[in-house]
Specification:
Layout: H1 7-13, H2 15-24, H3 32-44, E1 51-56, E2 76-84, E3 87-95, H4 99-103, H5 109-115, H6 121-131
């Protein structure tokens, strides 16, 4: 079965096939360097392709997959997904403050903005500050 992705979505979520494609073609590809950078990061940090979106917790019921502590209502939480059997399956959340330790990198603001299109600039700046990096 063939699965189709936007190139950037593929670089974020399915880095191996994107890297194979980039290595196999010499065609001009818009944003090749960006695709390469994000796919390389997904290979270097094995949990990074699990990042799906960011939102504020609507309740205090979810538990962080990293620290196993409840994610209080109103706190930023990062949604995670696994790619299994040709589809993405929800796999819980982590505190934004746990993201760096769980994902082994703090360079995820581009991913969070991509998969959370309603995220405003002020929120992105706040998230970047929590992650310890500037907005991309």
């Amino acid at each position: 079965m063939t699965h189709w992705y936007h190139p950037l979505c593929g670089a974020f979520k399915r880095p191996e096939p994107i890297l194979e494609f980039l290595a196999a073609t010499t065609d001009a590809i818009d944003g090749r360097d960006t695709l390469q950078r994000h796919a390389d990061a997904g290979i270097a940090h094995r949990r990074l392709p699990r990042v799906d979106a960011i939102s504020r917790a609507p309740s205090g019921r979810a538990t962080c997959r990293h620290c196993r502590v409840a994610i209080d209502k109103g706190l930023w939480r990062v949604a995670l997904v696994y790619y299994e059997d040709g589809r993405f399956a929800p796999s819980g959340y982590i505190h934004l403050t746990c993201a760096k330790d769980y994902l082994e990198t703090a360079d995820l603001l581009d991913r969070l903005r991509h998969f959370s299109p309603d995220l405003g600039d002020a929120d992105a700046a706040e998230i970047g500050a929590v992650l310890g990096n500037r907005e991309s």
